[in-house]
Structures are given as C-alpha cells and as structure tokens.
Design goal:
heterodimer, A: 324 residues, alpha/beta, six-stranded mixed sheet, four-stranded antiparallel sheet, B: mainly alpha, 81% helix, binds adenosine-5'-triphosphate, binds magnesium ion
C-alpha cells in the first residue's frame, strides 16, 4: 500500500467464522470509507454481532483478514483498540458505579490523562443530556439513559471509528430519534461509524451505505437510495381496506392479469400490489373487490421502500421490523 | 508496557473500591480470622501460639481467594469483563489487575489481624520485613489461584464450589493445624503440591514459632510460593486468552 494513500477505515477480505461446524460468516468482503456511516442490515442471526466482535478483538476469525485504519486485526489489535470505540448490543457498564465514574474509569483504561478525565466525562454527559444524572449509579438509569452512557463511554478517548451494535434497540421513538441525531452529529465531526441494525428505516435514515447481510453472507452493498431504486422498477399500489383480506381474495388479486406480486401488511388490512401498469390494474381491482364486499379506504401509489429492496434481496421480510 | 501497567492499576483500583473495601466485606474478612483465633486461644491458651502462623496464612488464603473467584466470574456473567477486553491492554494486564485487587484485600486483612493480635497476645516477630513480604507474596499467589478458579468456571456457584474444593484439603494438609512432618508419608507428598504449605513455613520461620527463624530458609520457601503464583497467573491468563476466539 502506498504510504501517502490514506488507509480505509475498515477493509475486510474473505472473513469467515465457524462455531462448532456451523458457518456463522461465510466469507465477507467489504470496506468502509473514512468518515461514512456504514450499516450492516440483516435479520436475527445473520452474523452482524459476530462481525463486530471479530473486528473489535473479542473473537478471532476462522479465516480471512481485516484491516482497521490500515492495521491488521490479528497483529495490531492493541493499536487498533486505541482508535476504536465499541457500543455492544447490551449495555455493559458497571451497575454500581455512577455514570460519571463509569466514564472516568473508561477514560483511565484508555489512557486519557488524569487532568482531562473529569472534564471529558462532563463534556460527554452534557452532550448526551445526562448531566443531571451524572452521579446516579448506572443500574438505576432508564434504558435510554443507559444506552446514552454506554455510547458516551465508547467515545471517551475520541475514537476515529465507532462500532455500534443495534444502537436503538429497546428505545422508544423519541430516544431512538435523538440517538440517530447524535450519530449523525458524530459523522459531522469526522468519526467513522459502523453500525448494525435490523431496522430498515434506521438504515435508510442514517447510513451512507448499507450492506445487506443474511445467513453469514453479504448480499449487496449500496447506498439506501440505490437499493430502493434497484428494488422495484415497477410501481406499487397500496390499498387499505376496512377489514382483513382473506387468502382467497389475495389469490384472486394475484391472478389478475398484469399483477406481479401481492403482499399483505398491517394485519392483512393493507395490500401492496406490484404491477406492470397501474392504470390497467386499477379498474379490475376495484370490480374484483366490489364482488367481495370489502370497502376500500385508501389507495396510494408508492415509491419502493428499502423494505421492498430488502425483501427482494433476502426473499423474506418476516424477521425484519419495518421502522420504529 | 506502560499502557498495561496503567490499565492493570486502574482495574485493581476500581475492584478494590467497588468490591472489596465495602463494610460487609471488611467486617466479615476480619471477623472470620478473629473468631478462629479467639476460639483457639480460649480453648488452650498455652498451646495457642503454635497455631498462630497457620491461622495467619489461613487469613491470607481466605481473604485473597474468597472474592477473587466470584468477582471475575460475576463480571464475565454480566458482561463487564468484555468491556475490559475491549480496552487497549493485554489479557495479562487485565488478570494482573484483578489479582492485585484480591491480594490487596487478603494482605490488608492479615495486616489488621497482625496489628491487633501481636501486641495483644505477645506474639514474637523475628523477621518483621520478611513476615510482611511473605504475607504479600502469599496474597498474590492465593489470589492467582482464585483467578484460575474464576476463569475455568462459568457460574458464580461453581466458582465457590471449586474454590472450596481446593482450599479445604489445603487447610487440613497444609500444616495449618497439624505439622506436615507429623503426618503419614503419603499425605506429606500431597502437602507438597499446596502453596499454602510453603506459606505456613514462611510465617512460622518469620515468627520463630515451630521453625527456627532462619532468613535463608524463609527466602527459599518464599521463592516456591512465588513460583506457584507465577505459574497460576500464567495459566489463568492463557485460559482466558484462549476463550477469546
Ligand atoms: N459463541 C457462539 N457459539 C455458537 N454459535 C454462535 C456464537 N455466537 C454466534 N453464534 C451463531 O452465529 C450466528 C450469527 O450470530 P450473530 O449474533 O452474529 O447474529 P446477529 O446478526 O447479530 O443477530 P441479531 O440480530 O439477533 O443480534 C447465529 O446463528 C448464532 O447462533
Ligand atoms: Mg446481534
């Protein structure tokens, strides 16, 4: 590698992980640019956490290589650790220590000079709106506060890359939103962010690029916009009913000429109909539904969502929660 | 290297503050040896002195291991150990920090017992410096034993069971209550694999109770205790590193 060329934030080649005969990662290849928010989007058990654990030194790969800021994870892990911050999927700071003491302890572990520790901790507590709870034991904080302290702890040594495993899991809408804003603010300050999520809206909102991972394989790496565009070339008709649509009616819609796919949502009261040409479909659909006695409450034409892309790529949306 | 020393130091300091030097621990840590000493003293004030070295070594053993094994297992269970693994320090430094905290507690308990018991019961001390050094090295070695227990088990109750399983034969065969030389030959060989046996020897010789106060002998026994400690420390570190995979 040329010395003048800045290394990539993360570079992964052929990364494999095997647990007693089970291939959790089947050879990942991807890279993350400096300064971007990169998302790992995939259903439960896809291998997201396993990837983070390997990249942060908590587990060893069975095969393959990875470099972080140009440093090899096998040889230079200690140097890497100084430049990365990690927020695990479960908040795991010391319950008996106060938020501020947890941060000061982390600062000490990462070699932040004694004179700066308290100031740095205070600064982060302020930034994450925790200043009024600085003295509370970690275990007494709400889940949202715990999450924020955990992120603050990961930032204490001003890492260049932040790893976030399911950052907004278990948070209510407001907390999740505030956290997403905080993540975007980090990128503005130049921090590279690698995050995992199975929340499509989150990936869509936050990420510069998204890798879709399923069963230990990366299916694609794209910008959210490109993913959406690639997902469906055909327009979608979203029909909302006053009651649930039966299987029989679904099959009937499916068999209308010109209809490519039908998917039910919201407990069967919303049908998303993918078709070649909507103008041709609409009258047929309305007359079909007239016969069934179902009332149409609303009809919309839609642009494809990331979820459509996800479902097209992974073949199933069952394990994905659409939006918070 | 500097990172490791600093990291280990802060881990030890945090453990000492959050786990060890809490009122219930301190009171229990002191109550236990005093109760033992008092019981033996009241029973036979004349022969009591013979038991002092063994009881001191025992105080260090229990002080250094009782929490050590539990603390590490507990932290692995609740996930805070992973937090430490993420820090830019070696596994060896992490384990060392944990050991030093446990050892500090065992050493301080023994020191407190000494400070009160020596003047009160007119216990002779021939080699005060060697006595303290001996207690310090023992505390580190026993804490390493606790650490090895902690890294080999998964659950806190398993840690307690395994720690007792190791400590009890030591207490009975390590020369605490009954001189090793007076035991059947087979048991004398068994006693040789316990660090406590050599620890009791150092205390006996340093006090000049049961053994002549021979400084060279004390150094020799201490070297053996230290070797046990280093061995246990390296194995604990190895076991823990191998689990990161
Ligand atoms: N220590 C382990 N031993 C055995 N199997 C494991 C281990 N860790 C993970 N796995 C398996 O590897 C696969 C990937 O797990 P991983 O935790 O990486 O998934 P994930 O994408 O993070 O899922 P989630 O969204 O549920 O967090 C799963 O099938 C899991 O059961
Ligand atoms: Mg996970």
């Amino acid at each position: 590698m040329a010395a003048d060329k800045a290394p990539k934030a993360i570079e992964v080649h052929g990364l494999k992980k095997r647990f007693n005969g089970f291939d959790a990662l089947k050879g990942l290849d991807f890279s993350v640019e400096l300064g971007e928010i990169f998302g790992f989007l995939g259903p439960n058990g896809a291998g997201k956490t396993t990837t983070i654990r390997i990249l942060t030194g908590l587990a060893r790969p069975s095969a393959g290589t990875a470099r972080i800021l140009g440093l090899d994870i096998g040889r230079d892990m200690r140097r890497i650790k100084k430049q990365i911050g990690v927020v695990p999927d479960v908040s795991n700071l010391y319950g008996e220590l106060s938020a501020a003491d947890n941060l000061r302890f982390m600062a000490a572990l990462y070699g932040v000079p004694r004179s700066e520790r308290t100031a740095r901790a205070g600064e982060l507590l302020e930034e994450f709106q925790l200043a009024n709870r600085a003295g509370s034991p970690f275990r007494t904080l709400s889940r949202g506060m715990k999450r924020r302290v955990t992120i603050a702890a990961a930032l204490i040594h001003r890492p260049r890359i932040l790893f976030l495993d399911e950052p907004t899991i278990g948070l209510d809408v407001n907390n999740a939103r505030a956290l997403r804003r905080a993540i975007i603010a980090l990128r503005e300050k130049g921090t590279t962010v690698f995050l995992t999520t199975h929340n499509l809206e989150e990936a869509n909102f936050l990420c510069d690029r998204v890798a879709i991972i399923q069963a230990g394989e990366i299916l694609t790496v794209q910008t959210p916009a490109a993913l959406r565009a690639a997902a469906v070339e055909r327009p979608i008709l979203e029909v909302t009913f006053d009651g649930a649509v039966s299987d029989r009616i679904t099959a009937a819609i499916q068999s209308l000429p010109g209809v490519c796919a039908v998917r039910l949502e919201a407990g069967g009261t919303v049908a998303r109909v993918e078709a070649d040409e909507l103008s041709a479909i609409l009258p047929r659909l309305v007359s079909l539904l007239d016969e069934t006695g179902l009332l149409i409450k609303e009809i919309n034409t839609l642009k494809p969502t990331l979820e459509d892309a996800f479902i097209r790529l992974t073949g199933s949306g069952e394990e994905v929660h659409p939006g918070a | 290297m500097l990172d490791n020393i600093r990291g280990g130091y802060h881990i030890a300091l945090k453990d000492i503050v959050t786990y060890y030097f809490k009122a219930p621990n301190i009171s229990w840590g002191l109550l236990f040896p005093f109760a033992l000493i008092l019981a033996f003293y009241l029973r036979s004030p004349g022969e009591f002195l013979e038991l002092v070295p063994g009881l001191l070594a025992l105080t260090v053993l229990f002080g250094s291991t009782s929490m050590e094994a539990i603390v590490i297992t507990f932290e692995r269970r609740i996930g805070t150990m992973e937090r430490l693994f993420l820090a830019p320090i070696s596994v060896g430094a992490l384990v060392a920090g944990k050991i030093v905290a446990g050892a500090a507690f065992g050493f301080c308990t023994a020191l407190a017992v000494l400070v009160i018991a020596v003047p009160l019961l007119s216990i002779p001390v021939h080699h005060p410096v060697l006595l303290l050094l001996g207690l310090a090295i023992q505390s580190l070695t026993y804490a390493s034993m606790g650490a090895l227990v902690a890294v080999t088990v998964k659950e806190v109750f398993e840690a307690q069971t395994l720690a007792n399983f190791l400590r009890f034969p030591m207490v009975f065969l390590g020369g605490v209550f009954y001189p090793v030389a007076a035991m059947p030959e087979v048991l004398q060989y068994v006693a040789k694999v316990f660090p406590l046996t050599y620890g009791v020897n150092t205390v006996q010789a340093a006090l000049g109770i049961g053994l002549p106060p021979d400084a060279a002998y004390i150094w020799g026994q201490l070297a053996i205790v230290a070797a046990f400690g280093l061995g246990l420390y390296f194995i604990s570190t190895l076991v823990l590193s191998r689990q990161l995979r």
